[in-house]
Amino acid sequence: MHMQLNKTDIQNRVDELAAVQAWNHNYSLPGGVETRPGTQVSHGKNLVKLERLKPLFEAIGLRGKSVLDVGCNEGFFSLHMAGEGARVLGIDIDEHRISKARYVQTLLGGGKDVRFDSLDIYSREFKALDRFDLCLCLGFIHRVPDPFSAIAALGDRADMIIFEWKALKFGPHDEAFAYFSPKPVDQADYYGTEYWLLSYAALERILQRIGFTHFHRIDDPRQRRAILVAGRKPHPLFERPDQVIHRGRLRAFLTHGKRCLRTFAGILSGRVNA
Ligand SMILES: C[S@@+](CC[C@H](N)C(=O)[O-])C[C@H]1O[C@@H](n2cnc3c(N)ncnc32)[C@H](O)[C@@H]1O
Fold first, then answer.
1. How does residue 250 score in pLDDT terms, banded at 50, 70 and 90?
2. pTM of the model
């Protein structure tokens, strides 16, 4: 394996890869090179997401576990988990993402404990994979057109799954509810298209049909990036109370107030049917 540790070489290679496709995960590489510099605020961004997930990884205990990272993208979470002692297979349908993940692996290590493959979860090869102790499914479930068969495919591979996804900002979370995103399809990038935004109850009902009986929610109504751990077997994590991070009253008022104003302005300008 060829390892480039010279700062200029690394920066050039990062730029080359970015010219093919912009980086999603921000990595700090040797020489201070960053793949996607800038402050991360959104819960969809890798560094913020990792902070939300760390307590779960700790509670589950990654050392010695086999983990499947579905839609691993540029491999940030796969490499993190390998650093915590897990054996990880990161898969993604997009081979450019996998090329980047492999390049970062040559720089940051992870060695034999991480493998990256370009694979579609709907493929025969995916169905032929071994079973894993844990499946990580981050930022993924709103990116596939048919969540039911996607979730069933994951449920065939592991008895414990961590989901993190873009849920509804406004809407019922204890009703099994799915909202079809109005965003257009981005044919050039699987990463950029979204389909169904599921409520907690919708995801849980689907999982119940395929034998999952235990759930732990970490909800954040401020950003609506939901986290759900689902299992077929008991685990101390499932004894914990669900966590809901409530937004402050002022913030809730301002958010709803903004929506009301927009609707009102729409009615006045004749764009919205009263
Ligand atoms: C929004 S990204 C999330 C990346 C990463 N898990 C994270 O949370 O930062 C979703 C990823 O799923 C991949 N993907 C979409 N459809 C897929 C499929 N059918 N099989 C495997 N990967 C897929 C995309 O290429 C993309 O990299």
1. low
2. 0.89
